[in-house]
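Try this one yourself first.
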């Protein structure tokens, strides 16, 4: 959400009176009827899996409620608590209400909290344990502040559109990597009794036209429709949601966009069908802020709660029950799901004072519930460090070897001029599409994913500290595009960024001003190291091969310990172990039709259409299919040591598994047989260099009739010089299957599968085949 959501029309009121009668232009939603299959009624939550006792308590509670009280649980009220959304209390039953707040990289809109590494940095870390620990410590902060539910993590957008404005909030363009990391994040957060609102469900792949707008003639332009076929949604966009629900995710936030031309928050195929039937989801569905566009139809389509408030539900829900438009059991199911979530996470004992640490307005910000702690520090720092990806290191320019003079350039090296609740709350939300964040270092992107961290340790701060400690000298020029360079500099560090914010898609994958700073420094400095704080893909074609650019680091969005983390890497106190969670193209045009968002055009000028015609072929799947050489491949990243691969072993658990999973009672996450391990793969990785290092061993599978290869395993291991480690990959039935649209089931094809293990998607020294 952003605070400006209110400009969106809340009702599906179409006003086309000013449109000239042009035959071609579609002016009525009825044109699209039937695009999205009708799936009714909403399956009731059953208490499946480990939800039984929560459902029992929830049903007992709901049984005591009056109609008015029931209705009051289906939407937020204007928040007196400073929470992003608030479900009001029912005092006579001792229910204190529910506080929900932004967002996935740290608690927004309050003080005394940490600014964590963003989703894209966690994606670049490829580190399961770290994702879990980050979730745990972030969860402790939410809990202490009395926030029952974090509005995150993000797995949609997945990153289909290279210029997508919110891609940095999620982990990776790959559903497998994203799925594993979101699962660990959910487990960590929920271990602290905090609910997770997994977002945005589903197909929320661009910011352009995410909400309805009014054109200059007063006509409504509806939200963009993501038109996604059944196979693609299963194999790509639904995949990480499925993993998170399997891991226990308790809430789903439906998205702003339309899906096959029906708004995502009233799409019965998505909510009743995919989510509540196929994935057996037991929690509740909440709208993104202001994403309700229907009345009773939304409730019948599977929506449970509206935020921040509803203008169409309220007493209409009981009227609708009385006149037969809606069943009483639907209303009961809506609030049973809310209360079951509350009991499932033990919130009845933990969250007695919802929103206790949230200021009621930014100007009265100080309730001093301090949620930061010393014990979080190592995790904050490690998450920042492991999100750095070293992609160029000529002649071992890094780590630095006791430089005497360090020259620092670029607008991204220094800390922000202002850091208060208001400025960080609005961080970027006033920016336009063409703005780059050129007024200081970028540690997080803009919009609801930004927060106000306890401090920001900017790169220059950490460099100065180091100079104090080791007697080196520092020169700097943050403002010149063509700075003068002291010829005795041992190293020139150039800091640039690539800004992105919720609400807008990016304008370009690079900008000429930043490129000029790099090339101007490099022409006068033979040892130029470039650090890019990138909120998404940043192309570097104009200087990647420059002989004087000896090092390039994609630093991503490290959070408040950004400078400290970078220094660990520059000086070799930490060996870089991040790997790209997306593909960097040589040229933006290589992303083809997936470079830019869809725009309203032609006969669909009032109903913008985004056809996901490429199917599963996004990012590296597309580059592999089209034979395009990337600048830096998906999964790529350098270390200060080297690793050798050997000894690939592929072993089947069953000689001849069935083509479809055996039928089984649906649990949260779907048919549990999908997650049976069918194949185990192991390999040996040896550290052949001189220092300790973590390698991310990656396994890709070539599934018959599918992409050349798809990530289906990774194992991050710390190995001492000269030593070896065994890496293990467990392939489940779903990992090896394709979605069969006729059978409506995951199909394990008969045929030959290729197995690849190695360093990244284009460097796979070990290969084998597997036949079913
Ligand atoms: C969208 O339409 C396609 C057919 O074009 C269909 O396969 C798919 O199930 C639909 N999905 C939703 C959510 O409506
Ligand atoms: C429902 O919510 C409204 C608005 O906050 C409140 O005035 C009313 O008392 C609530 N009803 C009940 C029965 O609690
Ligand atoms: C009931 O629904 C109508 C039509 O959507 C809306 O105008 C009205 O405000 C709603 N009533 C309440 C109490 O929300
Ligand atoms: C029933 O009530 C709902 C909510 O007020 C309203 O939207 C709907 O039009 C009504 N339907 C009938 C058939 O009266
Ligand atoms: C940068 O700072 C200048 C001067 O304070 C201001 O005019 C400009 O809008 C800022 N730019 C961004 C992108 O925040
Ligand atoms: C690299 O830097 C050296 C030293 O400043 C300079 O003489 C040389 O021209 C630079 N090379 C390029 C390609 O700019
Ligand atoms: C990138 O591709 C575009 C379009 O094909 C082309 O105009 C441009 O020159 C290319 N840029 C580089 C650096 O090759």
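Now uncover the answer:
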């Amino acid at each position: 959400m952003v605070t400006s959501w209110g400009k969106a029309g809340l009702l599906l009121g179409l006003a086309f009176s000013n449109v000239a009668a042009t035959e071609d232009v579609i002016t009525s939603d009825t044109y699209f009827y039937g695009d999205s299959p009708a799936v009714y009624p909403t399956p009731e939550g059953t208490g499946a899996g480990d939800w039984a006792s929560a459902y029992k308590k929830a049903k007992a509670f709901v049984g005591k409620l009056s109609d008015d009280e029931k209705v009051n649980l289906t939407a937020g009220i204007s928040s007196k608590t400073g929470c992003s959304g608030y479900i009001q209390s029912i005092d006579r039953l001792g229910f204190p209400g529910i506080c929900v707040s932004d967002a996935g990289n740290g608690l927004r809109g309050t003080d005394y909290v940490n600014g964590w590494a963003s989703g894209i940095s966690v994606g670049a870390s490829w580190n399961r344990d770290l994702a879990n620990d980050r979730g745990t410590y972030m969860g402790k902060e939410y809990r202490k502040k009395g926030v029952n539910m974090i509005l995150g993590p993000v797995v949609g957008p997945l990153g289909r559109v290279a210029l997508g404005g919110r891609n940095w909030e999620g982990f990776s363009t790959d559903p497998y990597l994203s799925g594993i990391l979101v699962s660990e994040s959910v487990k960590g957060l929920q271990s602290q009794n905090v609910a997770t609102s997994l977002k945005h469900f589903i197909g929320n792949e661009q910011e352009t036209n995410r909400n309805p707008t009014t054109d200059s003639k007063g006509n409504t332009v509806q939200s963009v429709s993501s038109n996604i076929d059944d196979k693609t949604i299963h194999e790509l966009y639904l995949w990480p949601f499925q993993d998170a629900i399997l891991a226990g995710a308790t809430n789903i936030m439906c998205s702003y966009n339309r899906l096959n031309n029906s708004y995502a928050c009233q799409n019965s195929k998505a909510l009743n069908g995919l989510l509540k039937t196929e994935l057996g989801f037991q929690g509740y569905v909440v709208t993104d802020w202001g994403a309700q566009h229907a009345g009773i139809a939304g409730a019948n389509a599977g929506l449970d709660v509206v935020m921040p408030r509803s203008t169409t539900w309220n007493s209409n829900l009981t009227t609708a029950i009385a006149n037969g438009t809606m069943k009483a059991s639907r209303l009961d199911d809506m609030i049973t799901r809310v209360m079951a979530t509350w009991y499932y996470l033990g919130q009845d004992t933990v969250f007695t004072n919802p929103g206790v640490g949230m200021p009621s307005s930014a100007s009265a910000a100080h309730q001093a519930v301090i949620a930061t702690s010393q014990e979080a520090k190592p995790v904050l720092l490690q998450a920042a460090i492991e999100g750095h990806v070293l992609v160029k290191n000529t002649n071992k320019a890094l780590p630095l070897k006791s430089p005497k003079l360090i020259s620092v350039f670029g607008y991204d090296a220094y800390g922000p001029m202002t850091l208060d609740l208001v400025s960080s709350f609005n961080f970027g939300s006033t920016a336009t599409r063409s703005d780059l964040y050129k007024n200081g270092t970028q540690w997080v992107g803009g919009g609801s994913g930004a927060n106000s961290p306890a401090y920001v340790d900017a790169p220059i701060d950490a460099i100065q500290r180091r100079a104090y400690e080791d007697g080196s000298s520092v020169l700097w020029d943050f403002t010149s595009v063509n700075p003068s360079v002291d010829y005795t500099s041992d190293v020139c560090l150039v800091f640039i960024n690539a800004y992105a914010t919720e609400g807008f898609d990016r304008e370009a994958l690079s900008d000429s001003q930043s490129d000029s700073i790099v090339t101007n420094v490099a022409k006068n400095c033979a040892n130029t190291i470039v650090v890019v704080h990138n909120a998404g893909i940043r192309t570097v074609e104009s200087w990647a091969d420059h002989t004087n650019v000896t090092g390039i680091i994609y630093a991503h969005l490290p959070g408040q310990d950004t400078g400290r983390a970078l220094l660990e890497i520059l000086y070799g106190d930490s060996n870089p172990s991040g790997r790209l969670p997306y593909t960097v193209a040589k040229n933006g045009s290589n992303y083809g039709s997936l470079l830019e968002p869809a725009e309203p055009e032609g006969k669909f000028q009032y109903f913008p259409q985004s056809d996901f015609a490429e199917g599963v072929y996004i990012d590296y799947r597309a580059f592999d299919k089209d034979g395009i050489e990337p600048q830096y491949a998906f999964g790529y990243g350098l270390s200060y040591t080297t690793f050798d691969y050997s000894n690939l072993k592929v072993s089947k658990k069953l000689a001849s598994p069935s083509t479809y999973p055996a039928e089984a009672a649906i649990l949260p996450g779907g048919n549990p047989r999908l997650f049976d391990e069918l194949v185990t793969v192991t390999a040996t990785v040896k550290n052949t260099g001189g220092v300790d290092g973590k390698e991310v061993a990656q396994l890709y599978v070539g599934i018959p009739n599918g992409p050349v290869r798809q990530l289906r395993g990774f194992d991050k291991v710390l190995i001492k010089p000269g030593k070896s480690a065994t890496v293990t990959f467990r392939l489940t039935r779903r990992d090896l299957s394709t979605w069969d649209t006729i059978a409506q089931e995951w199909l394990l094809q008969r045929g030959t599968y290729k197995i690849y293990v190695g360093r990244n998607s284009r460097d796979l020294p070990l290969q084998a085949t597997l036949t079913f």
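Discussion: Residues 1-21, 428-434 have pLDDT under 50 and may be disordered. The two ends are 47 Å apart (CA to CA).
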